[in-house]
Amino acid sequence: MMDFAARVAYVLSRVPEGKAVTYGQLAALCGKPLCARLAGRVVSQGVSPRAWKVVGAGGRLTGAAAFLTPGLQAELLRNDGVSLLPRDRVDLGKSGWVPTDEELAALKTAFAQREI
Length: 116
Known about the structure:
Elements lengths: L3 H11 L6 E2 H7 L6 H9 L9 E2 L16 H8 L4 E2 L3 E2 L1 H4 L5 H14 L2
Parallel strand pairs: 1-2
Antiparallel strand pairs: 3-4
Helix pairs in contact: 2-3
């Protein structure tokens, strides 16, 4: 049986420096491509200290309200080398994570090995 929360945590641990993912992309990478809201719910429950790397469609910093300090998500993204557009939107063309075939295969292998 799939442990979606464990998959979310694992995928977030693999997002490279200078890259961000959308909730929809995260859900798809975890095997549930139509479950962006579920991915958001799981991320909001604190499954990963790297939650700041997840953004809404179009690069919107939709999770920013969950951070205690206004602007913290944008600051963390900038410090990680993620390119932001005006109004604190991630430039997904430059900083959106597009996993290679090898990275995708490694995710599937890790899910199987961890039985998640």
